[in-house]
């Protein structure tokens, strides 16, 4: 017997959850976004470590390799939005576990092209399934137009980060 799907939180529950960050969030939208990102990251990190024995960099790299076949390490890091050093560490670990293989190339100097192995492809399939289930629970309280609007607004905010970071020091 499977458990019933979780219901989205009520407005009262949302108000209770937001209370610890409300004063700063009312003042600074960036604080609200960082709080959301931190909570999502902590929850995802715990979930993927517990169920798949992988960290968040590993998770992002595996999903990236599932979308893009045969990338070099720099391209993997950029596409997964992971620091290059963290990507290199993650790829070494994933290679030892048989999830990825690094193919040295002669035509590109010392560059290595990264591919998922058969085991990596199966893990990527499981991660996508789990990610979709988690995402459905995350957005359960939003209508389709609200989900589209949230995506649009978050992309606009991401685009604004570079502009914000160019501001002069006080």
Number of strands: 3
The CATH architecture of the domain at 54-131 comes to Orthogonal Bundle
Shape, per Cα inertia axes: globular
The top level CATH class name of the domain at 54-131: Mainly Alpha
Give the helix/strand class: mainly alpha
Low-confidence stretches: 1-5
N/C terminus separation? 60 Å
CATH superfamily of the domain at 54-131: Winged helix-like DNA-binding domain superfamily/Winged helix DNA-binding domain
Write down the CATH topology of the domain at 54-131: Arc Repressor Mutant, subunit A
Q: Can you write the helix and strand succession as a string?
A: HHHHEHHEEHH
User: Strands of the biggest beta sheet: in what spatial order?
Assistant: 1-3-2
Task: Give the helix tally.
Answer: 8
Averaging pLDDT over every residue, what do you get? Answer: 86
Q: What is the CA-based Rg, rounded? A: 19 Å
- Portion of residues in beta strands equals 5-15%
Q: What portion of residues is helical?
A: 55-70%
Largest sheet: 3 strands, antiparallel
Describe the structure.
The protein is mainly alpha-helical. Among the domains are: 20-52, no CATH class; 54-131, Arc Repressor Mutant, subunit A, CATH 1.10.10. 67% of the residues lie in helices and 7% in strands. The chain has a three-stranded antiparallel β-sheet with strand order 1-3-2. A hairpin with a 7-residue loop joins strand 2 (100-104) and strand 3. It starts with 10 loop residues before the first helix and ends in a 5-residue tail after the last helix.
